[in-house]
Amino acid sequence: MKLTVKYRIEVTDEQEKLLRKLGYYATKLYNTDNWQRREIWAQTGKIPDWYEQKKKLKDNHWYKLLPSQTAQAIIKNLQDNYNSWFHLRKEDPNAKPPGFRKKNKLSPLTFYQQFSIEGDTITLVMSRKFRAEEGVDKLHLKINNWREIEGIPKMCNILYESGKWMAHVVYEIPEVPLKDSPEIMAVDIGIINLAVTVDTKGNSTIYSGRLALAVQHYFNKEIAKVQSKTMKQYNKRGSKAITNMHKRKRRQINQIIHMVSKEVVEEAKRNNVGTIVCGDVKNIRRGKNCGRRGNQKLHAWAFAKLLTQIEYKAKLSGIRFEKVSERDTSKTCSVCGAVRRANRKYRGLYVCKSCGAELNADVNAALNILKKYLQERNISRSIGVVDAPLTWRAKDVVPS
Ligand SMILES: [Zn+2]
């Protein structure tokens, strides 16, 4: 399993200067490579591939200033851009081939074996030529938001993003042996309740989505305010302040998703669950649990993220992760199995017209996911009685 962690790095003035040079060299190499490919293309009608270019550029000035794998990654990157253009061209004959990067653009720097992470420090190994020119053979970069990851760092991308230096590190996470437990927990994902769990023993928890909705609502209102102001003053929609608010909103919702997914998996561990099964939210129906106001909808990315986070944390704990289709899971009565569009739902309550059962609508959906999974896998198991689901709420307002 792979995991990408985004670190912010603090750089000294000296390191900033050196990283800027490297980013500049990378842009130079990219453009040199592109220039050569275009030249040969014009002469022969054929575009050389990355293998040829790698060989040809080996002694290039910019290539040698970069760590060798970083240089190769630049050439590979241009190749990828050509490949997507080849595809695009089939549908759109006017599609343009990859262009040149602006001179002042700092290209991302990719490291494979020429980097290491120890504690909160990333070490980048420089090329021989760089060493000779700058008198520096290694860069030790301090990570600002470091956290311990139980995995092997495989790849590191150093980027300059809106005024900050970032390191995106890809870790290989070792497989954890799967637990040998027959208990299964179903998770229904929604908006009013971000997650509702029910397991085969009858344990159930409701993870309120109220905080996420409040965050969403607050920022949407603030963004609208600032937007109408900038519209009046400058006659444009976007501004730096608005971008920042979008970012803060996303960050806070991400934090809630992180907390909820962690709690869900903690619950599974506590109740000795061996398998977590989620409804596939790929096609979450419009209006499902949405409340009245359209602007209260959480974006699809939030659900997708919650699902991946649960999957990732489950796997780290040796818990199997499965998905079943969500079809009919909120329409069906989990007690008698009747499927009716007209089953009343009010205040989050599911009321069955056939058997009169009344239960929390999301608990009902989670029970249906659980039953569906048992049925699809041909597992014969009874499900414990769900009497009183617990409720979990994010206690603290998340830091902005
Ligand atoms: Zn019923």
CATH topology of the largest domain: Nucleotidyltransferase, domain 5
Mean pLDDT over the residues: 89
Number of helices: 9
Q: List how many beta strands DSSP finds.
A: 16
- CATH-scheme architecture of the largest domain: 2-Layer Sandwich
Flag low-confidence runs: 285-296
The proportion of residues in beta strands is: 15-25%
Spatial order of the strands forming the largest sheet: 2-6-7-1-5-4-3
State the CATH class of the largest domain: Alpha Beta
Proportion of helical residues: 40-55%
Domain module tally: 2
Q: Main sheet, how many strands, which sense, barrel? A: 7 strands, antiparallel
Taken from the alpha-carbon principal axes, the silhouette is elongated
Task: State the separation between the terminal residues, measured CA to CA.
Answer: 30 Å
* Small-molecule binders: zinc ion
Structural class, please? alpha+beta
Tell me the Rg in angstroms.
26 Å
